[in-house]
Design brief:
It is a single chain. This protein has 1008 residues and is of the alpha+beta class. It folds into seven domains: 2-37; 43-259, Beta-Lactamase (2-Layer Sandwich); 286-311; 323-428, 2-Layer Sandwich (Beta-Lactamase), CATH 3.30.450; 448-556, PAS domain (Beta-Lactamase), CATH 3.30.450.20; 571-730, Alpha-Beta Plaits (2-Layer Sandwich); 741-1007, EAL domain (TIM Barrel, Alpha-Beta Barrel). The protein contains 30 helices and 38 strands. The longest helix is centred in the first third of the chain and has 70 residues, at 2-71.
């Protein structure tokens, strides 16, 4: 009885324990399975996120590649290469083409945006040799060596990655430009991956799992990551799971690292203790609670995945709507639109609902009929992809041109055509403009008065000849140059410049300028030859030859007159030695040369002792004979490169080159003193004279010509004080003089900044017509202590100094402001402004001058720039080019103080100036000094020969004006007419001024 009851209890206990253990085991199993299911759901959600982001990144990279490839077909690029193929230079036309390309690059840069931010950091147009032609950002690099093209380069677009030390990695889309089936350049678009791709990767980072997304290039190079990761393989597989998604066939991979939650409830000791203490109802309730919680987590995970999918779909819809291309899905059977992006709606000025009711054939003139559409379907089903162009009309009737890339696809077991449309209307219009431009160029080449032809540099076959060439030589195209143009030749001409047109690298060299006389017709030609690229990629010889026979004949006729003028202007009539002007000119050149080759000069001032007594005792003729013999001895004892000049009276100046120091100079001076003290025989009488010599050495005495001569003169007086018949070296007291000059220059600089300078205007008149033709702007300094200072007090101090540039622009600004004021008040008066040669040589001088004219709204014809002939000798070609650019705007140029400098006919011939100004030093004394009279007469003749205007300065008497009118000079300025005055007095002066009757009478007599 008792035993049976015990057994029954034991079994009951066992059964209860078994049931409790079963419940606990069941609870643990359900918790474990729930956690596994939840973790799998979160993993699938992360996987879906990575795949969506891979699609977004892949679409972004391919879209930019297509965009850059399309831009290589931009008409602005073809226009540039067409202009360069025609031989245009940066000065004439090619710069405008580059500006057009730069504007197109900036338009693409501003248009391409992602999530409100620009996609491209910069876009550059690169030449075939790697040099940057134009870019959307300023760069110090003139050549991109990494992207240099070789002869085997193939057209296409490539993606290259470079490490940016500061901003991560930069992606470069490198697209080759195909011009006439030849790769001629590159378009390089720079994308900072950290700034552009990273927002795409972070766009869906709203999941609650701690994941990491990375864009990896080949060889495991991490380009972009949403979290700091140095090595994509350096993680524990127990705590993280890696998922890699390749981006098409580009070699790039989007890799995601998914964090695994390894901690589970079953491993907690507290959970096991709670299970042991809980009773069966508690376990049952906990089981029910965990099950409900697990179901809730599963539902929440599915909901989040659904929300994420909807968000990604909206994101991709937004990407499609942001695309600049027109994207549509078309039903093949009806040609009706199934879906379109916002860009297409904007293009047709319809909303999405209205456009989805339309058909593709409604908008196309090319595929308007059913037969045309069926033919299109047949082709696309066969090829699966078609690229074509078609035209149509907007709802308002305006035409458009579209390039279509259509793909045949199966979408949800349904046929569809995915089409990407690109608006090429602007390109078509540009092609038409380029065609018209080519027609204009051909018309210009046919109409210019110059021989233009192109020939092959190897075979000498003529490929093109303009109308002027065929008129003179007949039909040339297809014929050999040296056989047809030069009879009697058995081979190419010895003077042919083909070997000068290409550099050592095989690329075109600078334009070769030369002149030649044709052997048969004796015509002279000025020829400009260069190598230009031809359509087939080879370099050919372009020659532009202008008939200059008349100019050569005029130059030959004027050469004698120039020689006479030179003799009068630069040589002493008694000794035939150089005079002051020539000596100063040679000294100026010697100073430049000494600076260039780092050598020294000796400037000597020589005076004959007691020469006055010889003149008074034996007469001036004996004195003149003595001076002639002194000059001959000086010439015989100096080298050919040295200069001897008679300074006046019994004074001479010597310029001795290559004098390193005083010791070397002493040997030369001792030899000169010995030869000069040897007795002179004049008219059977022996004379012995001594000489005092003052010497200053350059660059020890680092001064200008006037200063050096003044120092030598001072040293000569010290030699006389020492007892005569000796020499003395000048002590420059270098520190004191330099500091004084620097202090004066600083004061002038402050005066410019503090607006202490004033412009006065000296009128210029037409004496023959009695009218005011303009005014010259002359600067004055309103010194706060010394009052109004003339220019001679401060302008010489800044000559050649950087302040000269600041002062020139200050004067130009004020003069244009005054011209604008006069123009507004109905007084159009031209203003002449003196400009230093250094200012004209500044880069961008012409552009800045044009901008200044535009700012004040005045015509270029109201401004005349005066340049000194002596300042342009060394840079004649550069200055001549700048002057031509300015002349195109209407600005005129005058050669100032003509006759005081080198006065070369070359300057008049090569400089595009319109006026010569006769220096006042000749004009003032022309009535009393016969040499000055002949110089003025010669300058007027030169101006008339070159068809230039001439104006005389320094007209201080009525007689001077009358004589100038008789010589043919009608324009003048000087104190006889008016002194320089403030602008406020010009109007009153014009009202009361009357031209002298003598001038009007002289002009009338000359006309008769």
């Amino acid at each position: 009885m008792h035993q049976s009851t015990f057994l029954t209890r034991s079994n009951a206990i066992r059964l209860g324990g078994l049931l409790l253990g079963g419940y606990i085991s069941l609870l643990i199993g359900l918790v474990y399975l729930g956690q596994i299911h939840l973790r799998q759901s979160l993993f699938e959600q992360a996987k879906l996120t990575i795949e969506k982001q891979a699609s977004a990144v892949n679409y972004f990279l391919s879209e930019q590649q297509d965009e850059i490839k399309e831009f290589t077909k931009n008409p602005a690029l073809n226009n540039f290469f067409a202009n360069r193929a025609m031989g245009m230079s940066m000065k004439y036309g090619l710069r405008a083409s580059l500006l057009t390309v730069q504007n197109e690059l900036k338009r693409l840069l501003n248009r391409k945006k992602l999530l409100g931010q620009p996609v491209y950091t910069a876009i550059s147009f690169v030449d075939r040799d790697g040099s940057i032609l134009v870019s959307t950002k300023e760069t110090e690099k003139q050549k991109v060596r990494s992207f240099h093209l070789d002869g085997d380069s193939a057209p296409g677009v490539s993606l290259r990655i470079f490490d940016n030390k500061k901003l991560g990695y930069d992606a470069y889309y490198v697209a080759t430009i195909d011009y006439h089936n030849q790769v001629t350049g590159l378009i390089i678009a720079e994308v900072n991956l950290a700034k552009v791709v990273l927002p795409l990767l972070q766009h869906s980072e709203n999941n609650r799992v701690d994941n990491t997304l990375m864009l990896i290039a080949p060889h495991d190079k991490i380009l972009v990551s949403t979290a700091p990761v140095s090595d994509p393989n350096s993680f524990s597989t127990r705590q993280q799971t890696t998922l890699s998604v390749p981006l098409d066939d580009s070699g790039y991979i989007l890799k995601g690292i998914i964090r695994n939650n390894q901690q589970m409830l079953l491993t907690s000791p507290w959970f096991l203790a709670a299970i042991a203490l809980l009773s069966l109802p508690v376990v049952g309730g906990l089981f029910l609670l965990l099950r409900l919680n697990n179901n809730h987590l599963l539902l929440q995970a599915k909901y989040l995945a659904s929300q994420q999918q909807e968000q990604e779909l909206r994101y991709f819809r937004r990407l499609l709507d942001l695309s600049t291309d027109l994207i549509a899905v078309i039903d093949p059977s009806t040609s009706r639109y199934l879906d379109v992006n916002q860009t297409m709606c904007t293009f047709f000025s319809l909303d999405r609902e209205q456009l989805l009711k339309k058909k593709f054939i409604d908008h196309s003139d090319t595929y308007r009929t059913i037969e045309q559409w069926r033919l299109f379907l047949k082709q696309i089903r066969k090829n699966e992809r078609i690229t074509d162009e078609y035209n149509g009309q907007h709802p308002d009737g305006s035409p458009f041109f579209i390039e279509i890339n259509a793909h045949y696809a199966q979408l949800d077991d349904r046929e569809a055509i995915v089409a990407i449309f690109r608006d090429i209307s602007e390109r078509k219009r540009s092609e038409q403009v380029i065609q018209q431009a080519n027609q204009r160029v051909n018309a210009v080449l046919a109409g210019i008065d110059a021989i233009v032809y192109v020939m092959d540099m190897e075979t000498h076959t003529i490929l093109y000849a303009n109308t002027a060439a065929t008129t003179l030589y007949g039909d040339l195209v297809g014929k050999t140059c040296w056989q047809h143009l030069h009879s009697g030749q058995t081979g190419p001409c010895s003077f042919c410049p083909n070997d000068k047109l290409l550099g050592d690298d095989g690329k075109p060299a600078e334009t070769y300028i030369w002149e030649f006389q044709h052997g048969e017709n004796n015509l002279w030609f000025h020829s400009a030859d260069c190598a230009i690229p031809w359509d087939d990629g080879r370099y050919v010889h372009l020659q532009v030859a202008t008939d200059i026979t008349a100019r050569i004949q005029n130059e030959q006729a004027l050469q004698d007159a120039h020689s006479q003028l030179e003799a009068l202007a630069y040589y002493d009539p008694l000794t035939r030695l150089a005079n002051r002007r020539l000596f100063i000119d040679r000294l100026q050149h010697a100073l430049h040369k000494a600076d260039r080759i780092n050598s020294g000069l000796a400037i000597c001032y020589l005076d004959l002792d007691e020469f006055k007594q010889i003149n008074d005792t034996y007469g001036h003729e004996a004195g003149d004979d003595l001076l002639v013999q002194v000059g001959e001895r000086l010439l015989n004892n100096l080298r050919g490169e040295d200069t001897v000049a008679r300074w006046g009276g019994d004074e001479f100046a010597l310029l001795i080159t290559n004098q390193k120091d005083e010791e070397q100079c002493v040997e030369t001076l001792s030899r000169l003193l010995d030869c000069l003290t040897t007795p002179y025989e004049i008219r059977s009488t022996l004379f012995q004279v001594t000489t005092s010599v003052g010497v200053t050495l350059y660059p020890k005495d680092n001064g200008d010509p006037e200063t050096l001569l003044r120092h030598a003169d001072q040293a000569m007086y010290l030699a006389k004080q020492k007892g005569r018949n000796c020499y003395h070296f000048f002590d420059p007291e270098q520190d004191r003089r330099i500091n004084m000059r620097l202090e004066q220059i600083n004061c002038i600089g402050k005066a410019i900044k503090q607006d202490e300078l004033r412009l006065f205007y000296q009128p210029k008149i037409d004496m023959a017509r009695g009218r005011v033709m303009g005014a010259e702007a002359l600067v004055r300094w309103q010194h706060p202590e010394e009052g109004l200072l003339p220019p001679v007090r401060f302008l010489p101090l800044i000559e050649g100094h950087r302040l000269q540039l600041s002062l020139d622009w200050w004067v130009l600004d004020k003069a244009m402001q005054q011209a604008s004021f006069w123009q507004t008040n109905g007084e159009e008066l031209s203003i002449s402004v003196n400009i230093a040669a250094q200012t004209i040589q500044q880069p961008g001088f012409a552009d800045r001058l044009i901008e200044l004219l535009a700012d004040y709204g005045i015509d270029g014809g109201l401004i005349e720039l005066e340049i000194l002939e002596s300042g342009i000798i060394d840079e004649l070609d550069t200055i001549s080019s700048v002057i031509r650019q300015c002349v195109e705007t209407g600005i005129s140029f005058a050669l100032d103080d003509y006759g005081t400098g080198f006065s070369s006919l070359t300057h008049i011939r090569r400089l595009p100036v319109q006026t010569l100004k006769i220096d006042q030093s000749f004009v003032r004394e022309m009535l009393d000094n016969r040499d000055d009279f002949h110089i003025v007469e010669g300058v007027i003749g030169l101006a008339r020969a070159f068809e230039l205007e001439v104006i005389a300065e320094g007209v201080e008497t009525t007689k001077l004006g009358t004589q100038l009118l008789k010589l043919g000079c009608n324009y003048a300025q000087g104190y006889c007419i008016a002194k320089p005055m403030p602008s406020s007095e010009i109007t009153d002066w014009r009202k009361q001024y009357k031209v002298p009757e003598e001038w009007l009478k002289a002009a009338a007599e000359k006309t008769v």
